[in-house]
Design a protein that fits this description.
Distance between the termini of chain B: 44 Å
Helix content of chain B: 25-40%
Structural class of chain B: alpha/beta
Order of helices and strands of chain B: EEEHEEHEHHHEHEHEEH
Helix content of chain A: over 70%
Order of helices and strands of chain A: HHHHHHHHHH
Strand content of chain B: 15-25%
Shape of chain A: globular
Structural class of chain A: mainly alpha
Radius of gyration of chain A: 23 Å
Strand order of the largest sheet of chain B: 6-7-8-3-9-10
Oligomer: heterodimer
Number of domains of chain A: 2
Strand content of chain A: under 5%
Number of helices of chain B: 8
Shape of chain B: globular
Radius of gyration of chain B: 18 Å
Bound molecules: adenosine-5'-triphosphate, magnesium ion
Largest interface: A-B, 15 and 25 residues
Chain lengths: 280, 253
């Protein structure tokens, strides 16, 4: 904060005596300080939120509500997304693989792509749009209308009451959603392969199972747990720190969706890299 | 006797906006202080500093003689149980029914079961003149005046020792405002609570206050018994209570 103010004062008083590169450096420095302090605030928020997940009092009623909101009500979106993705995967890999008569690999391509990569990432992104935005809007409105302050004055810690149930629900429910999505995605590939590409049902399913390893599924589930945490965390963080007014809430919602989507893609790469070296 | 609540030299700025510039206030136990002052003079910020929702930059805030600005989380939790707050905008939980709002402090703060708390909440609603059928509505389904009354019922439900009222009558018709004033007086008399209220409604101030203080540019510029408000000899106070555009207070337009 002090550094920011100093930089501001410098600009006001000494602007004219600074050369162009100096001014560039100054601006760069200010951006870096701003970025680092934002990262610091997010880290502090994350630490507090996680700590309150594990210390009493707990709010089981609120947790159940979040589990239903985040998990159950996301089922249609996740189901549709993975179903169509499975279908498209079968079609696309058929047009590629039939050129070198490898069409029999389609069941494997579908199941591996869905479980390892597409179901977690697409479910993560869909839930970011649905749940992350809703959390940011709800908490942002509560911030703006002073409901979060009111919680504090009624002897209730807002981190425990608002943040912890959402973080837990996101981290627990996304893997379950993805597990369902895995099945539906494979089914989508099956439908297209059997009904329009002429696969024999028994063979397709046999091939799907044959090369599938437990690590393919579990690595996807671990990823999705991280994505679920990211989505709810960014929704909570942006909503909780929303600026005053309707505009502030709108910005919080946008930021929640954009930042969690980007973080999902970034973390997806690094987690895949880790799984790649650990389990292949 | 140590005052119930005492502020000494409290400062608070937001960037270059110096909102509180050394506020001094003290309230005896069971007394009611009303702080009057123009819009944006930092009245809400002052209350939020006492509640710990904002951290003052400098100064001392004592409750029952105990310094609160340096308290850790646990001590603050215990302190919070002494406080009740009526927010300027009501701040009702809009995802909860009216009775759940009123019962909130009992259920969360005093670990009462929901079943025990419900009849108490309905009783508190009746005390502020709301019929039992309102209990199962959501705040958004109520008029502004009804919301204020629910907020009032919630603020006093846990029988706090110190109650803060931030503009309890703003935006209400004069009759409803008077009803709220009566309720505040009754609530604080019944509970024997110490109250700090904020208002720019002079009728309300005269009715609620034992003492009145006027805040201007982040400082208390006058304070005294409510009866002396008309003979304060202070041109700022005179201008304010008469509501005149001419005088030492210049509106920044
Ligand atoms: N959280 C905050 N962040 C930044 N500035 C704030 C914040 N809260 C209040 N302020 C500023 O502090 C000043 C005083 O605000 P405050 O809400 O205390 O006014 P008030 O005296 O209660 O006015 P009113 O009678 O209109 O409610 C305003 O200039 C406002 O912009
Ligand atoms: Mg105010």
């Amino acid at each position: 904060m002090d550094a920011e103010q100093n930089a501001g004062r410098l600009e006001q008083t000494g602007c004219s005596i600074l050369s162009v590169p100096q001014r560039f450096l100054q601006r760069l420095g200010r951006a870096a300080i701003g970025f680092l302090s934002a990262v610091g605030r997010l880290a502090e928020f994350t630490g507090r939120g996680v700590m309150h997940c594990f210390t009493p009092p707990f709010f089981p009623r609120l947790l159940v509500r979040q589990l239903i909101d985040i998990g159950y009500y996301s089922l249609p979106v996740v189901g549709l997304t993975t179903f169509f993705t499975g279908m498209v995967l079968a079609l696309q890999s058929y047009s590629g693989f039939s050129r070198f008569s490898a069409a029999s690999a389609i069941p494997n391509v579908v199941v591996l792509s869905i479980t390892r990569e597409l179901a977690p990432v697409l479910a993560g992104l869909m839930v970011a749009g649905r749940v992350g935005a809703a959390i940011a809007a709800e908490l942002g409105t509560m911030r703006v209308t002073e409901q979060i302050d009111a919680l504090t004055t009624l002897s209730t810690n807002p981190y425990k009451y608002l943040i912890a149930p959402r973080l837990i629900a996101g981290t627990v429910m996304l893997p379950l959603l993805v597990l369902v999505g895995d099945v539906i995605g494979v089914f989508g590939g099956y439908v297209v392969s059997v009904y329009s590409l002429g696969f024999v049902p028994g063979t397709y399913l046999h091939n799907t199972w044959q090369f599938l390893e437990r690590g393919d599924v579990t690595s996807g589930l671990w990823k999705s747990a991280v994505f679920g945490f990211i989505v709810t965390l960014m929704g909570c963080y942006n909503g909780f720190n929303s600026d005053r007014g309707a505009q502030g809430v709108g910005a919080a919602t946008t930021n929640a969706v954009v930042s969690s989507s980007i973080l999902i893609l970034v973390f997806d790469y690094f987690l895949t890299q880790i799984f790649f070296t650990v389990i292949k | 006797m140590t005052p119930k609540l005492e502020l000494r030299g409290v400062y608070k700025s937001f960037g270059s906006n110096h909102v509180l510039n050394g506020v001094d206030i003290s309230i005896e136990k069971g007394k009611s202080l009303v702080v009057i002052g123009g819009s944006g003079t930092g009245k809400s910020v002052m209350i939020k500093s006492v509640l710990g929702l904002l951290n003052p930059d400098k100064g001392s805030i004592k409750v029952d003689g105990v310094e609160t600005t340096t308290m850790d989380l646990k001590e603050r939790d215990a302190l919070m149980k002494k406080f009740g707050m009526l927010f300027q905008g009501g701040a009702l939980f809009d995802s909860m029914k009216v009775w759940e709002n009123v019962a909130f402090g009992l259920v969360q703060g005093q670990s009462m079961s929901r079943r025990e708390a419900q009849p108490i909440a309905i009783e508190r609603l009746r005390a502020v003149g709301l019929p039992a059928r309102v209990a199962d509505l959501y705040p958004a389904e109520l008029s502004g005046g009804m919301q204020k009354r629910v907020a009032l019922a919630r603020a006093v439900a846990t029988k706090p020792e110190i109650i803060f009222f931030d503009e309890p009558t703003t935006g209400l018709d004069p009759i409803m405002a008077d009803v709220i004033n009566d309720l505040i007086v009754a609530a604080s008399k019944d509970l024997g609570a110490t109250t700090l209220s904020i208002t720019h409604d002079m009728a309300s101030a005269r009715k609620i206050a034992d003492n009145i203080a006027m805040i201007y540019k982040g400082k208390i510029i006058w304070h005294g018994p409510a009866n002396d408000i008309d003979n304060s000899g202070n041109p700022y106070v005179d201008q304010f209570i008469r509501g005149q555009a001419d005088g030492p207070i210049k509106m920044e337009i």
